[in-house]
Amino acid sequence: MEDDYYSVESILAENQKIQCQFKIDIPDMGHLDGGNERDIKALSKIQIPMWMAYILIYSDYADFTIPLPFSARVRNALNAEARSVRLSGLVGQGGLWYGFGRMIMRLLNDIPAQEVSDVLTKTFRSRLPEVIDQAHHFAAASGSGGGAIGSDEATMAFREGLDGTERDLFMLAQENARRTKRWYETSEKARRS
Amino acid sequence: MALPPPLRTSVTPAELELIACEQLVDIIPLVAMERTAFISGAYGPLRPPAKCKVPIWMATNLKLKKKCHIVPPDWLNVDFLQDRLTRETSQPEFSELPFRFAEVAKVILDVASDDISNPEKVRSLLQDIREARQAKSRDGVSKLDHSELSLPNLCAMEINEIRPFFVRSMGVLTQLVRQPDPGRMDQME
């Protein structure tokens, strides 16, 4: 989730496609659409990966529409209950919803950008406690021989719906909780004597 | 970085324990010893039955050889901890406790439980306090924002436990909050 040139995450998030509408004819580039046309005609709509879309949009060759993962429908769902939206389902394999959103936010100006930013931060903050809770829960469960915890469908769906960024946080929290718990539970008397 | 990944995010509980063991504690020695110089300083002389201040690591070492009794710190007893637990559960903020209480308490309970009155009760009180405080720091997660977080009276072990994901989440939030900087779009690519 950073701008680093070498950040694999940011490269993966750039692989997301957004829909662009071209404003001008572009010859010999029809293969971008995977289609049979030789040229890209003005006003045609094509899915373009993010990393290519930047230059097209900044050079004013094309306009883009807000992609599906940030559409009004998803926003409404997030507003209603952020924790029940499956973010990973919204953005394909890598599942970097936040990274993708941040790129969209940077492409936009003023009010729309602020809106996207608000959606992102609000979603992140309302989902974070649940992420941490479950991480702790799992750390505790794995220490004492697992058990039937986590079989609850709602929590399982939430875990499957974690976006890549949240998944990292989950692992961090889990690892640390586990380590602290281990320390609390082991008596070091044997080691000392 | 040469450190293995699990050690990069924060120090381990065992390391915190090591640091905490530099703190001084009162002991009642059972053997006599001249004042002796160690790397961290000179301690002693030990003259039974007079009390003496030594670091916890030395106290535990002597204790395990049955050469001293450890005098528990004034906060490590049932009355004090009971009082803190009541405050912890009745007030929204973290109650005041020694910064490294978790480490010190664990070490002393581990090696010198016979020097503490009612060690089982102390143990369960410490556990309760820990759980009450954990619940509070979990609530803190929802108040997280990208620039600051203030949780006064949090102690070393608790800070260490929540540090990695708090830092990371704040980092993420920083990225998600939009800076109202007009020059930004131009310098992007």
From TrEMBL, chain A:
InterPro entries linked to this entry: GINS_A (IPR021151), GINS_bundle-like_dom_sf (IPR036224), GINS_Psf3 (IPR010492), GINS_Psf3_sf (IPR038437), PSF3_N (IPR055221)
Gene3D superfamilies for this protein: 1.20.58.2050
Domain GINS subunit: 70-184
Subcellular location: Nucleus
DNA replication complex GINS protein PSF3 N-terminal domain sequence ranges: 6-57
Keywords of this entry: DNA replication, Nucleus
Chief location category: nucleus
Domain of life, source organism: Eukaryota
Protein role: The GINS complex plays an essential role in the initiation of DNA replication.
Entry similarity comment: Belongs to the GINS3/PSF3 family.
Subunit organization: Component of the GINS complex.
Protein name: DNA replication complex GINS protein PSF3
Species this chain originates from: Rhodofomes roseus
The organism's taxonomic lineage, starting at the top: Eukaryota, Fungi, Dikarya, Basidiomycota, Agaricomycotina
From TrEMBL, chain B:
Keywords: DNA replication, Nucleus
Highest taxon, organism lineage: Eukaryota
Subcellular location: Nucleus
Record SUPFAM superfamilies: GINS helical bundle-like, PriA/YqbF domain
Transmembrane parts of this sequence: none
Domain DNA replication complex GINS protein PSF2 N-terminal: 12-71
Domain (GINS subunit) ranges: 75-173
PANTHER family hit by this protein: DNA REPLICATION COMPLEX GINS PROTEIN PSF2
Similarity comment: Belongs to the GINS2/PSF2 family.
Summary of subunit composition and partner proteins: Component of the GINS complex.
Official protein name in the record: DNA replication complex GINS protein PSF2
Source organism: Rhodofomes roseus
